[in-house]
């Protein structure tokens, strides 16, 4: 009977683990897409058709306060800068690799060149 119970447990455990993995992947994909879209909106607002943004604007400060009041953690100025950097570093949404997490993209966005990002993307592959 113990052998049958172990097989049943193993099968159920596998179903649960696979389901959790699917949920993680779906949530990660939704997070990456939403952060990419938010970054795009921030960049477009800051630049307003110019090649570069004007400095000295307090957009992120006010946006952070509003978003944090409504949605809680995750929208402080630092993370909004990360989201903006993410969009600037990966401007083609369809090229995002959804198997990478937000943490991966945050680190990759901090690299100072596209060549370095491509190198590390290949290493992660």
Describe this structure in words.
This protein has 125 residues and is mostly helical. The chain is 73% helix and 0% strand. It has 5 helices and no strands. The chain has helices at 2-47, 59-71, 77-89, 102-109, 114-124. Helix 1 packs across helix 3 and helix 3 crosses helix 4 (102-109). The longest helix is centred in the first third of the chain and has 46 residues, at 2-47. The protein is elongated, with a radius of gyration of 20 Å. The chain starts with a helix and ends with a helix. The mean pLDDT is 90.
Can you tag this structure with a few keywords?
125 residues, mainly alpha, elongated
* Net shape: elongated
Total number of helical segments? 5
Distance between the termini: 44 Å
Q: How much beta, percentage-wise?
A: under 5%
Helix and strand composition category: mainly alpha
Mean of residue pLDDT values = 90
Residue stretches low in confidence (pLDDT < 50, at least 5 long) are none
Helical proportion, percent range: over 70%
Query: What is the radius of gyration computed over CA atoms, rounded to a whole number of angstroms?
Result: 20 Å
Number of strands: 0
Quaternary assembly: single chain
Described by strand count, sense and barrel closure, the largest sheet is:
none
User: Could you spell the SSE succession in H and E letters?
Assistant: HHHHH
């Amino acid at each position: 009977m113990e052998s049958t119970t172990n097989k049943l447990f193993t099968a159920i455990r596998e179903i649960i683990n696979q389901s959790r993995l699917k949920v993680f992947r779906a949530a990660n994909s939704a997070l990456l897409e939403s952060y990419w879209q938010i970054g795009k909106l921030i960049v477009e607002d800051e630049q307003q058709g110019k090649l570069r943004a004007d400095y000295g604007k307090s957009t992120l400060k006010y946006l952070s306060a509003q978003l944090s009041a409504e949605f809680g953690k995750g929208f402080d100025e630092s993370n909004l800068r990360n989201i903006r950097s993410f969009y600037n570093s990966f401007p083609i949404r369809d090229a995002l690799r959804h198997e990478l997490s937000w943490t991966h993209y945050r680190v990759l966005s901090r690299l100072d060149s596209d060549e370095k990002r491509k190198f590390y993307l290949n290493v992660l592959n």
